[in-house]
Amino acid sequence: MIIIRLIDGVNEIVGRIVSFVAVIFAGVIIYDVIMRYGFNAPTPWGFDLTKMLFGFYFVLLGGYALRHGSHVRVDLVLETFSPPVRRIVDGLGYVLFFLPFAWIFASRSWEFALRSLAQNEKTYGAIQLPVYPVKIAMAVAACLLLAQGVAELLKIILNKQEVHHDVG
């Protein structure tokens, strides 16, 4: 189904691009530590910037993680069910719990982001960085997560659900 491929593809691309943010914030942390302890000249922006970059990284990978079955699940009871019963329970879980939560998360995040943008919200600190980019990223991430939830539910309904194996 084209909608499933589209949603999976968007979350795959976003996940791969955002994964590079980890390299950037690790570089900022290393730079800040070297400046602080090697040259006794800490950056006034390093801490706030790494918090913001980690925020981007963390929230924008939600849809990607759901696509790859990386969210926390409690499969102890579910594993005892037959595959058709497991599909029904999974589907009900998406309809009753995941999708309503994701909808509220998405709609409230957009309100939160737009208010931050309208107020030109900034961090409190030596360097005042704008906060609204992270809040907009949170709203985008919530929409990606909601869309991926819809794709996962469609996979269950169409019996095209990928099997995700727990690691460890």
By DSSP, the count of extended strands is 0
In what range is the share of β-strand residues?
Answer: under 5%
**SS class:** mainly alpha
Q: List SSEs in N-to-C order.
A: HHHHH
| Rg over C-alpha atoms, rounded to the nearest angstrom | 19 Å
Ends apart, CA distance between termini: 32 Å
For the largest beta-sheet, the strand count, sense and barrel status come to:
none
Unreliable stretches: none
Percentage of residues in helical conformation? over 70%
| Individual helix count | 5
**Inertia-based shape:** elongated
Domains, number: 1
Mean pLDDT: 89
Report on this structure:
The chain has five helices and no strands. It has 168 residues and is mostly helical. The chain has one domain. Helix 4 runs antiparallel to helix 5. The model has no long low-confidence stretch (mean pLDDT 89).
Features:
elongated, single chain, mainly alpha, 168 residues
Task: List strands and helices in order, with pairings.
Elements: H1 2-38, H2 46-60, H3 62-67, H4 83-118, H5 132-157
Helix pairs in contact: 1-2, 1-5, 2-5, 4-5
Short structural summary:
The chain is mostly helical and 168 residues long. It contains 5 helices and no strands.
